[in-house]
């Protein structure tokens, strides 16, 4: 039926809404950046010397290949969100990468050059423990996957299962490691915590248990963190309580006891309270691991040890050292160690680090292998080190390193410290953002400043004016000169770099500063025109599950006061908040003293009130309903006292279904004035949205076909509250929509959408609410639009007050079928609100659709009449089409789009759009086309020549007329 | 537009002018102890109000909302006159721009069992006291319920609701509440209207479709046949020169 409808609606497309880009406009006003997220596994392609491939698997369930020369993506596979797509393990052999996905659900092999799938195997259920390549006689033929209760062996060539065996006593023993030395056996190691270790040996060929042994180890709780296999099958375990290393040969006949070696005998001491970590390397899966290994004794202390004939000897002590890593090229294995450059300075401040290579078998430092790594003062500490070693022509070892830091920066460095590329992976998880106008140029500011200062008499004013005009003239001349100079150069060279110094507002305010807040607590300032990161700041003490709210307290409009943004960071568990105040243009932390917030913050409110420095007042309400003002100068407090009785705010407690309204008192305490309780047994609140504060509505009403006006109900305090039923049965589930006045608590409208279920996305703007839900009965997504009208007469046209609006509005509603799921919904926003509105719909396919609001109009008539045609109403059709020319991002798909941000520009026709998710995409949209911009092919020559021609024609004809008149007078 | 707008509010409001003089004293004496009273026809919920010069709410009984379970229009409000003291207090509160608050307990209008009806807490709403005074105690109280019949909110507005500072003679105008009370339940949001649309489309198809069907095969494809014939003739006549060309080369 839907298809039939789709066919019918084609005939309805009478109105030409073409918003698609032209081919030559691609990339002109838009850009996209693709990210991968926090790297979990990174492997270099050591297959061939010239290979540029770097394979990464990330926390965001992404498996990608990066170009190690440029940092760009070769290809990227985005898997499902959540644990289902989680990448458990990444192994690489030759051209193939083997990936275990979704807690051991799938085993996949990828071809790494183009990213094609070789094969995929569905594994038996069971939680994933470990996976390893199994080699035999120098050939790697199998991959073993260890699960909680079974081990299976798969062919590397096609993924077929060779054998699967249940593990003995898997209900008591926790099997955690699989190991093979390449000589025909597979060892599975398990532990019964605080009791013993179990070693099971399987035959590679048929999966038969060759041997099964248990060794007492009452001190051991987990194998994973404290045990490795070193040398020719020797299990090494470290015990922090007795400060000793236990060794156990896996293949010997009599395995009854582990041999302890006290660390003290090696002259080593452990940092107290630190869980020591062992790290070994197995350069080739078909050969046993090396007998050298690292032991981490403290957070900044590593030591390279060697096991020889059952004895451990220290090769080299690295103290202090932050990160260590092994790398192999050809037959050589090296150890890379990152340590602070100035060895006398301990942990703080660490500004520069040096990375050195050491020969793994001797511990000797290799000459000329130092890489200096400068840490970003606005960044975090390095957390992971991946080394790509290669043989140079003279057979010495060269290397490059990939360093990941706490703030998710990937730095790729080569000798002697050159940063080859940097990726800001924190941007894969943008939480919230704002766009801030760029500051004026120096000359513009000079002019502005003239008006700001006090008048000092006539003559100085005149002189000042003259001087500023001179400066303007000078700037114009230099601009002309630059134009002339640039014109002689070839096009490609003219491209001027955007730097923080050259930032200035353009003519139409189309270029802005995007301030982005990421989940990891890193802030970014990005130029909206080019996408270049202009500043970044890592906030160190942010808890991982914090909630952020970004507010622009002072815009750029108040020269000479710098613009000011405030970030409210709230810990989700404790509710305690903190404020971070900064300059959004330069990213510098402001020195303004910030109020302490000892109590959990419930609500924040940015008032239109300003202090004497033009900063908007921010009110924070704590859990005792006390209000903290920021800034809290005397001026502000006085204003607040005067305004107190007209400052209202609301709180939503979704867990109890309670919405309550408060009014500010003069002493900055509050009083409860209204309460609405939606019983949580029936439905739960899933979203509350007010209107955007910077939204303008140009037209108060709509002119109807008969020339009368239908006035819009434009209540700035209106809240749209969306609920979902707790009963999820498909016949009884519903979605509730409440429109509540945020000042009086009056329920203006309440509606239920029957047989509907979330996730609900909704937009609340002007006099309408649009929401999307899932229809459980018809199994489809549906749009619904609510519009509110006051009627044919306006109650009080001069000012709107929630306290003085006795008549409830008329509510119109209509619903439509939408043929796709949606990820996010937002409405366009323009400077004055004259331009018609579009809805920006983020689709799961990665497309962003610009849907004219005109199609979502509850006044669309079932049957078109003359009046409705006069009003430009489209006759109702139940299905909303997805037209590909509405996709504003053509083929630049935005993966996992989570939010869309819209901002007005200086041009009324133009709205700036940023879509963020895994990727970031910035573009401009023109909902009513560019009605205020001359077209590119506008014929200036013709117009000016016609004008000039007319001018001269009038001059000549005037002269002729004069002559004629004179002649006539003489007659 | 018209049918939608009229269906928007399901308020069937009945205005009752508070002429229940005889209830006055007895209502004042009754406290919040027995909130829900029931009799055979329905049950009643106390409506309380508060107006204080110091703006600290102290709720006292204003009247009783009588609800007839199961019937949509079964809501009445019986309320007392304002006492002399309250009248002057209300004027004082209005003079300092204080608030006039009302509250009702959270109850269910649907449930048959008394124990299920009552939930913890109250629902409150407010207006400016001056607007109540200036409107001569004419207010509209709406009780909002959710789908299952629980009261979720109460709203109060006065008509007119602006404060213009008009003088009010207390004796006449501030004695009797002129209240309109109603219950507002959620309306059902419309689903996409497909049936009507398909019907309309089918009608249009019928109109357009029929004449096309009656065309015969030749009438439809005569140009193809003609074109084919011309093409065949052209190719057959063009062969001899082609052969001649081959001979030449």
Describe the 3D structure:
The complex is a heterodimer of chains A (971) and B (249). Chain A is mainly beta and 971 residues long. In chain A, helix 3 packs antiparallel against helix 4. In chain A, the strands form 16 sheets. In chain A, strands 48, 49, 53, 54, 55 and 56 form a six-stranded antiparallel β-sheet that branches. The model of chain A is unreliable at 1-18 and 343-348 (pLDDT under 50). The longest helix of chain A is centred in the middle third of the chain and has 31 residues, at 458-488. Chain A is built from eight helices and 62 strands. Chain B is of the alpha+beta class and 249 residues long. Chain B has a domain at 43-184. Chain B is 36% helix and 29% strand. Chain B contains nine helices and eleven strands. Chain B has helices at 2-8, 24-29, 84-95, 114-117, 129-134, 170-173, 195-213, 217-237, 239-248, and strands spanning 14-17, 37-38, 43-50, 60-67, 75-79, 99-107, 118-128, 138-145, 151-158, 178-184, 187-188. In chain B, strands 2, 3, 4, 5, 6 and 7 form a six-stranded antiparallel β-sheet that branches. In chain B, strands 1-10-8-9 form a four-stranded mixed β-sheet, with no helix packed on it. In chain B, a hairpin with a 7-residue loop joins strand 4 (60-67) and strand 5. The chains are: A mainly beta (971), B alpha+beta (249).
